[in-house]
Fold each of these.
Amino acid sequence: MTQEAETKAKAGAIIVPVTLFEQNCTILWHEPSKKAVVIDPGGDVPKIQAAIKQTGVAVEKIWLTHGHIDHVGGAAELRDALKVPIEGPHLADKHLLDNVVASGARFGITGVRDFTPDRWLAEGDQVGIGELTFDILHCPGHSPGSVVFFNKELRFAHVGDVLFNGSVGRTDLPGGSHATLIKSIKDKLLPLGDDVGFICGHGAGSSIGQERMTNPFLTGEM
């Protein structure tokens, strides 16, 4: 077995598109132990629970990339159902988590709750699941408290709504800044390496190298 195959066998992931926003709720697990985390449970909690059961993993944590309603709408409900802690996002998104109900009302979303995570995450922190360790990169711009989860060994990141396949996160929401977002991507994500693959908050994933070469917001950036 090759080194690459051995590395990839250490983790598994499935994406569960949730709500009308088609947000990529991600179930990620350490393959040997089946210990898992749910990243960004934006809603449709019964659908997420069904996927957990079907996958046969043991969810021990919920991770949040940022505080927008389409990524956190189901977090409080899922925390209560699974009795696991919520980690993330960065404290700069506290105002969003304090206003989940109000934000949901603007989109006609009911049944959501304001909440506080069990742990705020900051640049340089680490989180883990099973034997997998992820570095935390604070990448503001889409929201003030957006974070990226990066596993150096797997050459894999979950970038939330910071970077997309062929695009970048929207910055027209309160607290958003296009200049700040591009700086986050250039300073934090591009240096990770072209071989790093990523899952994003909506749509198909990609790699850092692919986006460096073809993303119209980034082409020519080194």
Amino acid sequence: MAVTLEQPARARLVTPEGRERALPVVLRYSAEDPLAIQMTFPSQASLDGAEVTWVFARQLLEDGLVAPTGSGDVHIWPCGRARTVLEFHSHQGLALVQFDKIVLRRFLVRSYAVVPAGGEGAQIDLDEGLSRLLGGV
């Protein structure tokens, strides 16, 4: 059975007017998908009123804590010494979310206790992944 790590966190959604709105977020990491992390935002944070989960590379978060990084839908950069900004792009628009850097660092440290950096390949079952991709063939 694969280990799954969950950590509740507080974030701040930056509104188009430049105001910050507190937001509960759940950070997840699973040994079954060792390269990725998940961030789940509550329904009140989305335009359509549905809970939203973003999945992106764990390494992207690690890199974004120290320097601007990202391409495509997710961009991450440090904001001063104590905060990190995540920018999410979708067909519905853009969301800017700030976290205390220490919260994200703590989550990453806990995820590396589940699967160490560089050990992700040992956790991936290529046969199972190909089977799922090909519809159980």
Amino acid sequence: MSRQSVQLVIDARPRGPVGPLAGELIQGRSVLAHLVELALTFDTNAVQIHARLEDHPRLESLLSDRQSGRFAFSTGPPNEGAVVLRTDRLYDLTKLRRVVRRGGDPESAVIWRLDQPHGLSGADAELSRRQTYQPLGRYWALMPAKRLARSLCQTRVRPNWLTLGSASLVLGTAALTAFAPPWTLVCIASAVALAVALVLDTADGHLARLQGTSSDFGRWLDGSLDEVGDMALHAAIAWGTYAQTGHVAWLLLGMLYGMSKYLFFAITSSSPEEPKPGLPSQPHVASSTNLKPVAMPAPRTTRLVRLIGHADVRWHLWIVLAAVGRLDLALVAYSLYFPLRTSAAAARRVLHHA
């Protein structure tokens, strides 16, 4: 199926408690705007949007920033044989391209359903997670994590076990860093332990989705143990380097890291424009009565600064530096990074309220 021959349409008829789901906002833009943008990557012609006649004016206003010739509204159900994107679904573009090319069902490219309980309330966070998920780990840790999750799906192993296993490996690495001599074998063992921990940390979420065992407790446990491991590892770096060199400055750097990261989380916890490192922004749900959502992407420099503090990027830095026996460089880097970001976030707050 060629790119030009695809007949891809949008079914905007599904409705929620307050009207068409096409008008709900996700990341500051309507669901309809997200789907139109996705559809236009397949077909240079106008995208056909099927909706109730009385909803046409409202939905058309949601696309006021696009040329009217790029889309057209129709009533009734889509034609049989068309590739239909529903406004009660969110799709993965890469999977959708593969499915369309093979003539398959677009439902297999769905990453989130808005018609499920908590569908709208969790959509913003899920899409953010997908867009920022493992900028480095996706290239090597994601595949073995998915395979592990599939192999464990029919067993009694639960996601929390993987979470605990990942945390145990990170804490074990912290113990080696703090008390073991910096031998080559110790360095390699630490790097391998951190790499396996990342795979387990990736696999627990996939296993939860496959088994249908996702829970608030599991998410809390995962996030909490990630922070415990992060703090323990940096504390171990500070102590281990101090024990080797005798310089008390390393202990001060460890204290600076812990305090500055805590302050950063405290200052930005209620600030929507400053998401926490490696964590998605808080879900935002808006009524479909909002007619003109506007996306506000962060500047490139801001995205780069946030990427440096991303949990996945920091984890990969640990792996590389552990392998060469220089985890102290990670402590130095982020003992400077978090105070700078904390100061910048505090300054924006002060200027905003001045």
